[in-house]
Amino acid sequence: MYKVSEKPLISKDEIENRLESLGSEINASGEYDIVLGVLTGAFIFVADIVRRQVGNPRVAFVKASSYGNSTQSSKQVVFQGLDNLQFEGMRVLIVDDILDTGRTLSKLSEELLKRGAEDVKICVLLDKPSRREAAIEADFFGFSIENSFVVGYGLDYAEKYRALDGIFTLEAKT
Ligand code: IMP
Ligand code: MG
User: Fold this and answer.
1) Catalytic residue status for 100
2) In the chain, where are the structural domains located?
3) What angle do CA 171, 158, 76 make, to 5 degrees?
4) Tell me, which fold does domain 2-172 have in CATH?
C-alpha cells in the first residue's frame, strides 16, 4: 500500500511562480493555433497555461491510455478524440502533466505530424529524464524531478489525489 508524502515535493506556491516564467517562455516562442491537452493528468495544467498565453488558441483534449493503475508505464498507448480535430497546417502546443518514458508524447507528436501539423511543441509540468525510453525532449517544462512516483495538481495514482494543490510523492506505507 502507498501513502502520500507529508511535505510536498513541489508546493502550490512554487508551481504558481514557475507558471509565470513558463508562460513567458511559451509566449516568447510564438503563437499556437491549438493547445492540445492530454487527459486526464493535464487538466489543471492546461487551464493554468492557457490563461498565461497571448494569442487565441483553440483548446482541445485527447485522451491517452496506457497507464492503468500501476506505477509502471505499459508499452501500448492509445489515443481517443484525435479524429474529430483538424491538424493540417496547425501550430500545435501539446500540454501534458509529465514526461516519463516519453512513449506517450513521442507517439502523439508523430501522429500529429502525420496528420499534417506544421509544428508540434511539447510543454510538460514535470520531466523525469532518468526514465526516458523514447528519443524525445520537452520544449518547455516546469520542473525536472528524480525518479519517484508523484501525485497532485492533476496527477493521480489509481485515479486518486488529482485535486491536491502541490506535487507530492507516493511512498510505501510502513
Ligand atoms: P510516458 O508515456 O511514460 O512518458 O508516461 C506518460 C504518462 O504516464 C503521464 O502522462 C502520466 O499520466 C503517467 N505518469 C508517469 N509518471 C507518473 C507519475 O509519477 N505520477 C503520475 N502519473 C505518471
Ligand atoms: Mg497522462
Assistant:
1) yes
2) 2-172
3) 110
4) Rossmann fold (3.40.50)
